[in-house]
């Protein structure tokens, strides 16, 4: 079994004229690197394009549901789980998912009063949430736990303990009230549910594995039962390997057929759109052990991976490679149709994540009658070779290219002998799935 924990993906795309990612001013996203302007495609744009692609759905199933609207999330969850749980139970689980209720367990005395605070879930879209991924399986686990506890109810001992608080004060300010028998029993049941959920926290973590995009990209949560997840896949913003001044502007019009039929001339609408073309470097690093933890294959990062868990992670890595070489953001594609595939890819199994972006810190010059692709490929290969030698990096690497005309190094006999070449993407995928070895 390969001991290398990181899979590094280095992809080169030559995109035809397009505008694949825009900022809030409807301009192409750019970045300054090496003292010159490059066109940029954000990592968020790339990740969204991949998780919403047909290939992702085919290989991994549905991605998580992302929304900031609690009410809309409830509606979709109720519909998805209607054959298993009633509406009220699903909605309660959703409320707990984003904000856990705080109930008094033991008597917390403050000046002789029980402080039993409970933060209300605000109804409607006024509940201010961050856009976060919801995994249906997590809500299914919560519904099951809450349903089980409510079906069990309180034991005689639990009721007796709860009623000891009868007549005492709870809450603060205007919400302060004297506890009735019903209040005491409600608080006790709430506490029992919270404790049972805490016991089932490992089951909740395992449920995350049902949405691969969360396992890959991670999730940050600050409250409730929505667990934070350390992403296994780090994705860089893609940038052009060469300088680009995105000053090409498309003046487009929309012709009003009815006014033209009436004899009027001119367009019904006139506007502009920035566009450009270039060779883009995409980089991503996959932490294999973190992926296995997030998928529930091993307990934590200190655990040893096993043959089965490693193989499942490698299967994911193989498909991630396919996504990175074939999926393109959808922005303005109806206008530009830049549906290009990757021209070159270098993949390595390494002990650490290593970006090769500095292969292009000095912007690549266009080769006369050859463009930017050939020098970009050769810069990437040569830079990888130099870093490997200079730092004594012990990695296994392979390259995919379907057209060897882009490789000056191979023609000149300078191709690194340790870099295995593949001319078919299927063979490269098998190499990844086989842990960096030929099958």
Report on the architecture of this protein.
By secondary structure, the chain is α+β, with helices and mostly antiparallel strands. It folds into 2 domains: 233 residues, no CATH class; 145 residues, no CATH class. Helices cover 38% and strands 19% of the residues. It has 16 helices and 16 strands. The strands form 4 sheets. Strands 1, 2, 3, 10, 11, 12, 13, 14, 15 and 16 form a 10-stranded mixed sheet that branches. The protein has a two-stranded antiparallel ribbon with strand order 4-7. β2 and β3 form a beta hairpin. α5 packs across α7. The protein starts with 5 loop residues before the first strand and ends in a 6-residue tail after the last helix. About 6% of the residues have low confidence.
Topology record:
Blueprint: E1 6-18, E2 30-33, E3 36-41, H1 43-51, H2 54-60, E4 65-67, H3 70-80, H4 87-98, E5 109-110, E6 113-114, E7 132-134, H5 136-152, H6 156-163, E8 169-170, E9 177-178, H7 181-199, H8 201-208, H9 212-217, E10 233-235, E11 238-240, E12 248-254, H10 257-261, E13 269-287, H11 288-294, H12 307-326, H13 333-336, E14 344-350, H14 373-391, E15 396-400, H15 408-411, E16 419-422, H16 425-433
Parallel strand pairs: 15-16
Antiparallel strand pairs: 1-13, 1-14, 2-3, 3-11, 4-7, 5-6, 8-9, 10-13, 11-13, 12-13, 14-15
Which features does this protein show?
single chain, globular, 16 helices, two-stranded antiparallel ribbon, 2 domains, 439 residues, 16 strands, ten-stranded mixed β-sheet, alpha+beta
